[in-house]
Amino acid sequence: MRDARWLRRPATLRRLALASLIANVVIVVTGGAVRLTGSGLGCPTWPSCTDASLTPTREYALHGIIEFANRQLTFVLSAVVLATLVVAVLARRQVRLAVLVAASIPAQAVLGGITVLTHLNPWTVAAHFLLSMAIIAVTFALWWRLREDPAAPGLRGAAPGGLRAAAWAIVAVTAAVLAVGTVVTGSGPHAGDRGATHRIAFDPASVSQLHADLVMLLIGVSLGFAVLAHAAGAGDRLRRAAWLLLAVELAQGLIGYVQYFTHVPAVLVGFHMLGACLVWLAALALLARTLPAPSPIAPADAPRVATRSASGIRAR
């Protein structure tokens, strides 16, 4: 159908992939808002809100509405991700990554349900956040591969192997920072609900110091990468990606120090969660700039195209 051709356009799939990426970041931030408002058990059961009602009841009032609203955002996210998958299949582009992103939705929903049923056990809360970071990484990879045009001149210069290894190290240290950050949160004051009193049995000050040390390591490695990129004559886009990562890290570090010395106010914790997503995305973008430009159509996804040669029509 001619009217459906827009579904197969690269721009349509690229925009849907970007929408999926943004939606995953938004749901991380709104999930943090649920915890920071003490609404984590506003709906004490899963998948219904209470044992007797699918939706919030007057007994749980505002907290139930906040928690239930966040659950409904999962359906919005699911709709965007499924639309991305459908268009990827129709366009036969990056189908495998689109399937992986779609498969992450039920996995995250089940883990979210376990988090509620275990009364916000801090370890399951941490796993819930880290799974979101993994999903963001896969969704970013999908969007990045769709936005890259290998034929565009000067889009990406060849990065030396040393820079590529350094970029992988930055991603690894960033992942460690995120993981230890969840332990800081799990040992801190924001349990997500007044009834969820169980916290990780670590000294918050000690864990926060370890987290800060890893952040300093990350900033140091990122600064070293930026200097090395200039010395190696790397492309402008890679150098800009390095300085952008460093700027985001410094802003996130500033928020972290302020929230620690102001006794962890909920508003700053919310900004810190958004910052964590942005640091992760900046690190992934830096790594992506060092990798070989992907083909717009993966070999496994490429359709068989009929071409005419001197000996007749052959498939390739």
Quick description:
The protein has about 325 residues and is mostly helical. About 65% of the residues lie in helices and about 5% in strands.
Characterise this structure:
The protein is flat and about 60 Å long. β1 and β2 (312-315) form a beta hairpin. It starts with 9 loop residues before the first helix and ends with a strand. Strands 1-2 form a two-stranded antiparallel sheet. It has helices spanning 10-36, 61-91, 95-117, 122-147, 161-187, 204-231, 236-261, 266-290, and strands at residues 306-309, 312-315. By secondary structure, the protein is an all-alpha fold. The chain is built from eight helices and two strands; from the N terminus they run ααααααααββ. It folds into two domains: 1-148; 153-293, no CATH class.
Strand numbers in spatial order across the main sheet: 1-2
Shape field: flat
User: What is the total tally of β strands?
Assistant: 2
- Assign a percent range to the helix content: 55-70%
Main beta-sheet annotation: 2 strands, antiparallel
Please mark out the parts with pLDDT under 50 across 5 or more consecutive residues, or reply none. Answer: 149-157, 295-316
- Count the domains: 2
The separation of the N and C termini measures: 25 Å
**Which radius of gyration do the C-alpha atoms yield?**
22 Å
Structure annotation, total helices: 8
Residue-averaged pLDDT: 81
Q: What percent strand?
A: under 5%
* Secondary-structure element series: HHHHHHHHEE
Main structural class: mainly alpha
